[in-house]
Amino acid sequence: MLISVFEECSKSIVKYSIVKTVYQRSIETTPLSVIVPLLSPSFQSVTDQVHSFSHQTPISIRNCVYRIKCNDCTKVYIGQTARELHTRIGEHKRSINRPPRNIDEYQAIVNDSAMAGHALDTGHRIDLENVDILRRGLKFTPQRLVTEAMEIAKHPSVNRIEGVELASVWRAVLDQPR
């Protein structure tokens, strides 16, 4: 009995120390207002804590590469922005929700937004409520563009432009199974 109580305490301490480590590392890259919801007094598993945090889209995040999924197929849209993410998502929403009145408007929408073009051409629904942040803290445009190109290469995407051209060495690395 005493051993099992000790084991339970050890597990709780290990979980706490892992959560504390994740918290400390996230402070370095994320504003505190985003981190606070991650930690709760209960001892959830670290996986549950990180999973629930990663699926929240903080409205004030900047300098990131993000992924938007199609609800009806496996394709995704990979994008990058230096502005606040909610501003960019709002632009995506407007382009998708704006029905074209004629063929010229249709062409303009499709030319402006690959994601809106996918939704219009296929009738699929785009999940703009659950945007995944793939990388954050990329303050320089070249960093974001290269990261975006690498993510586009890894996913079946609706992106028309693959971003910056990656060297063949990167293609070989990205194509390896994990």
UniProtKB/TrEMBL annotation:
Domain C2H2-type span(s) in chain numbering: 70-92
Protein name: C2H2-type domain-containing protein
Source taxon at top rank: Eukaryota
Organism listed in the record: Clonorchis sinensis
UniProt-listed PROSITE patterns: ZINC_FINGER_C2H2_1 (PS00028)
A Pfam family per the record: GIY-YIG
InterPro entries: GIY-YIG_endonuc, GIY-YIG_endonuc_sf, Znf_C2H2_type
